[in-house]
Structures are given as C-alpha cells and as structure tokens.
Amino acid sequence: MISIEGLSKTFGGLHACDDLSLSIEPGSTTAIVGPNGAGKSTLVQLISGVMRADAGTIRLGATDVTRLAPAHRFSLGMVRSFQTARVFPGMSVLDSVRVGAYYGLFYASHPFSVGSTVRDAAASLLRLPAWRARYREAERHALDIIGLFGERLATRLDHYTYTLSYANRRRVEIARALASRPRLLMLDEPTAGMNPTETEELAALLRDIKAARPELTLIFIEHKMNVVRQMSQRVVVMDAGRIIADGTPEQALNDPKVIEAYLGG
Ligand code: ADP
Ligand code: MG
C-alpha cells in the first residue's frame, strides 16, 4: 500500500525524520509510537503531503506521490486527521462531514487536476441533476458515518463546530475523514484529550470500522498503550526521526531500545 524509502526532513539542524524507510501492507493497522519530538507527526505530515520531504520517496501502491500536493494525495484516498483537531469552525456538524463525503464521491469519478472542483461546480450548473444526486448521496453517507458516533454527533447536526467540546470536534474531524471513503487513513493521536471512557469508545468505533472495511489501511499515532495493544497488529516505534523498533505490540513495546528511549526522553 504505502512504501517509504530514505525519507528525510530537517528543521534547521534537527533531523525530524532521518533517512526513514517503512513499508505498510494494504488493509493493515499500524500504530506509530515514541516519545514526544520523535518525529511521528512529521512522518504523517510528509505522507499526507502537508510538508515536503527534503529527500526520499513515498509510494502509494505503484504511484510515486512524493511531489504531489495534499489535495492530489487526498484524491487518491490518502486522508488524515491532525494532532490538534482541525475543523471548519463556521460549519455545522453535518456540513463538515458532508464535505468529506462529497469530495470522496467527486474524486471517485474524476481524476484530480488543479481547480477541478471549481470547474466541476461551474459545469454542474449545466448538469444540476448530477450535482444534486451527488449532494444527496453525500448527505446520506455523512449521516451514516455520523450515526456510527452515536448520540454525540447525531443530536448536534446543525451545531457549529466551534461550539462543540474538544472531543466532539475530534469526532467531527474523524467522521469527515471517514466519510471520504479513504484507502489509507492516518490519525494523529485520535484519542488525545479524551477521557478513558471516550478513548475506549473511539477505539471500539475504529475497530468496528476496520472490521466493516477490511481493505482500509489505518496508521495511527497513539500514546495510550492500551489502545495500541487492542487496535494494532503492528507497532512502529520512533525516536529522534528514526525507527528503533518494529513488530507486534509485544515485540516492539518490550524492546530494550524502546524502554530506554522512553526513560531517556
Ligand atoms: P512527535 O509528533 O513525535 O512528537 P514531531 O514530528 O511533532 O514529533 O516533531 C519532531 C521534531 O521536529 C521535534 O523536535 C519538533 O520540535 C520538530 N518540528 C516539528 N515540526 C516543526 C516545524 N514546523 N518547525 C520546526 N521544528 C519542527
Ligand atoms: Mg506529534
């Protein structure tokens, strides 16, 4: 699914990502762990295209995406959430998730090109029925996805996202990502700021989603080891921009190098 070779990113003299190579199987769930400042978020920024790598290549299947813009990677099914939830503050819950659903549908039938969505909007004035059908399907799909989160979002469909609790903004962000029907979903600390009950709920939800869509490839950064253990087949441990351990949760988390990195960090 995703293969990374020799990926590097420096900030000043700091190697946030240091000649890193990693290959991830389609349909797998991989946790990325490591002390603060290890380079985990940087890795997700590089894979999603929010940051450009200084060196190295990133491939999605056979496609070299290293130089593609984030929107182009999104159109190929590479979707992510941020460590600090980023939602559209002046949009309702339903609209926010519908945006994800709409563009997921849009790109399923249109190859990416710069400005394509703007051109589509203009052309749609002439093809109003097609546009309306996609809009309605996006709404149905958005409501289905919102429904997975139970009452927490479903009772707040018309609430502006800036009025939501932190945990709910995070749910909206994850719902928006899921609604676009990603092939590769990257979540940067999805349970950050959630209490143990909310964390357990989100972990169960992500497990259900994976069970329903076995072809989905999931990469998530997580500090809570109980979540890591229950969700992932594979744990990749980073420290100082490098991978210091990689294996099953048991292998990776009990590696002496990993214990040392945590104690030293
Ligand atoms: P993690 O997510 O593992 O905590 P990050 O990827 O956020 O780590 O950061 C790795 C290192 O790169 C840290 O030392 C951090 O301070 C630095 N860093 C991250 N983003 C930037 C940036 N935009 N500018 C400068 N330094 C950065
Ligand atoms: Mg981070």
TrEMBL record:
Where does the ABC transporter domain start and stop, copy by copy?
A: 2-265
Matching entries from InterPro entries are given as: AAA+_ATPase, ABC_AA/LPS_Transport, ABC_transporter-like_ATP-bd, BCA_ABC_TP_C, P-loop_NTPase
Specify the superkingdom: Bacteria
PROSITE patterns for this protein:
ABC_TRANSPORTER_2 (PS50893)
Q: Which GO terms describe its molecular function?
A: ATP binding; ATP hydrolysis activity; L-isoleucine transmembrane transporter activity; L-phenylalanine transmembrane transporter activity; L-valine transmembrane transporter activity
Q: Which GO terms describe its biological process?
A: D-alanine transmembrane transport; L-alanine transport; L-isoleucine import across plasma membrane; L-valine import across plasma membrane
GO CC, alphabetical:
plasma membrane
Q: Which Pfam families match?
A: ABC_tran, BCA_ABC_TP_C
| Annotated keywords | ATP-binding, Cell membrane, Membrane, Nucleotide-binding, Transport
Alphabetical list of PANTHER family matching this protein: AMINO ACID ABC TRANSPORTER ATP-BINDING PROTEIN (PTHR45772:SF7), CONSERVED COMPONENT OF ABC TRANSPORTER FOR NATURAL AMINO ACIDS-RELATED (PTHR45772)
Task: Tell me the protein's name.
Answer: Branched-chain amino acid transport ATP-binding protein LivG
Q: Which organism is it from?
A: Castellaniella defragrans (strain DSM 12143 / CCUG 39792 / 65Phen) (Alcaligenes defragrans)
